[in-house]
Recover the amino acids of this structure.
């Protein structure tokens, strides 16, 4: 299991994983939406803001993050590789690339949505806290914020 920055040569394997888990992501229901997502991933790859974990030749987990917006944009892990630390590997790398002196945000499923159990637990493990209830792509979500660490000077 190894972490890599996504490159255009990875796009087919990346999309193979996304196609497996798209039922869990509102907004990826149609082929047109998947094509739009693919174009987005390629843009993120061009900015070195797309990371993936590979197991053998397969991509087992993916994440998009935005330095410009200081946020986690997308996180997905193959059902075959859940509870193996892939989400943590991706979070560790993304947080190394984001500005820890400012709020970092992510949007995920709400507390009453079973789709949110694993991602919410992961974000909370890293210190993210619940923020506003929002709606994205016609689906109820909740914003999470990781506030900058406060240091105490003596």
């Amino acid at each position: 299991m190894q972490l890599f920055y996504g490159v255009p040569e990875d796009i087919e394997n990346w999309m193979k994983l996304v196609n497996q888990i798209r039922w869990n992501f509102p907004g990826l229901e149609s082929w047109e939406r998947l094509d739009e997502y693919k174009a987005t991933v390629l843009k993120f790859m061009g900015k070195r803001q797309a990371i993936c974990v590979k197991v053998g030749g397969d991509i087992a987990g993916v994440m998009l993050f935005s330095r410009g917006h200081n946020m986690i944009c997308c996180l997905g892990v193959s059902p075959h590789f859940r509870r193996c630390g892939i989400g943590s590997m991706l979070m560790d790398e993304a947080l190394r690339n984001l500005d820890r002196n400012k709020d970092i945000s992510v949007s995920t499923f709400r507390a009453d949505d079973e789709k949110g159990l694993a991602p919410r637990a992961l974000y909370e493990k890293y210190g993210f806290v619940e923020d506003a209830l929002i709606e994205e792509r016609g689906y109820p979500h909740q914003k999470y914020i990781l506030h900058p660490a406060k240091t105490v000077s003596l």
